[in-house]
Amino acid sequence: MSGCCLVNRAYTPFPAAHHSGDPAVWTADDGTKFPYLKVTPSKGQKRRGLVVLANGWDSSTEDYRPLAERLAQHGYVVMGSEIRGQKYDPNIFRRGLPGSYRDWVKDLEAFSRFARHEYPGLPWFIHAHSFGGLVGLAAIGDSHFVEKPRGVIVHSPGFPFIVQKENRLVGVLLAPFFWVRIPHLLLAEINDTKPMNDPVKDGVWLRSPDRLRCGYTLRFFSECVKLGQAANAALEGRTVPLLALEGGKDRVVTNGDQVARPLYTDFMKNRVGRTPNEYRRYPTEGHTVFVGGEGERALSDILAWLDRHR
Fold first, then answer.
1. Local structure of residue 182 (DSSP, 8 states)
2. What is the pLDDT of residues 234-291, one digit of tens each?
3. Cα 69 off chain centre by
4. Could you say which of 30, 77, 113, 125 is the most buried, measured as most Cβ atoms within 10 Å of its Cβ?
């Protein structure tokens, strides 16, 4: 049995659906070898740029293959690493139990170096979605990039972790219980935060073998709050162009409507996407704006923005 599920046997993960066989791996600064996704333009096609993925909580880079394939058709190389502390962390005892939130930022910076080393000279960007949206913003705020990205696509960032203020006293009181896990499916049922705004796709997502069924520890959520504060602070001194993408039916970013929708929209439009940055809203889309009825418009907006900032 996977070591991540010693607390709750009922939530042992299913066999992995992605990265079967012998996946490509890269080596992080601490020596961990993470699987990664790479989608490239067809042979002979001109390469227009490089897009590094910062994917969402409890997801796999493979979930972004539809986006990656569309960008590759347009000439962009797309690469993304699996995330430390989540389902595809090679260290099974670290799954759901992270160290510092800064490790996520360092991993994004290190993977970006790896990707740029493979494709030197290409203008590069970050597509940062959900949890990854926080990592992407925090990275540009506390960056060790030798070459900063030409821009960051901030796609449905984890807003509940931005508005949730860190309480040090509560942190001290909860410290003895930081190992307690909240199973993924139970969390989804409590908050009713279905990401796709589509009952069929939501059901597939919730039952996917790529979810960490044993759940995430309270320590994980504590570090996410710190990450959210770092991401919000980074917006004060941002130095790269941002494209803010909002789905009008996204209940993940409002924590099942526990956070007021106008507050989130104001954050995306007037903080992340304010001029000279750009803001796009898709009224009928959920947490992932390129999969529904307005997905084609969202993909076209992403490609147009990338082309303008190459």
1. E
2. 998 767 999 999 999 888 888 767 788 999 999 999 999 999 999 999 999 988 898 8
3. 18
4. 125
Domains annotated for the chain, with CATH where assigned, are 3-308 (3.40.50.1820)
Do 54 and 86 meet the contact criterion of CB atoms below 8 Å apart? no
E-assigned strand segments in the chain:
25-27, 33-39, 49-54, 76-81, 124-129, 151-155, 181-182, 216-217, 242-247, 278-282
Model-wide pTM > 0.90? no
Rounded CA separation 125/78 (Å): 10
Query: In sequence order, which residues have a C-beta less than 8 Å from that of residue 112 and are 6 or more positions away?
Result: 52, 124, 126, 145, 149
| Class of residue 78 by CB neighbours under 10 A (exposed 0-12, middle 13-18, buried 19+) | buried
- Dig out the tokens for 16 from the structure: 């992995």
Token duo for residue 290: 């390129």
Interatomic CA distance for residues 158 and 251, integer angstroms: 11
Tokens 């058709």 sit on residue: 73
How far apart (Å, rounded) are the C-alpha atoms in residues 74 and 109?
A: 25
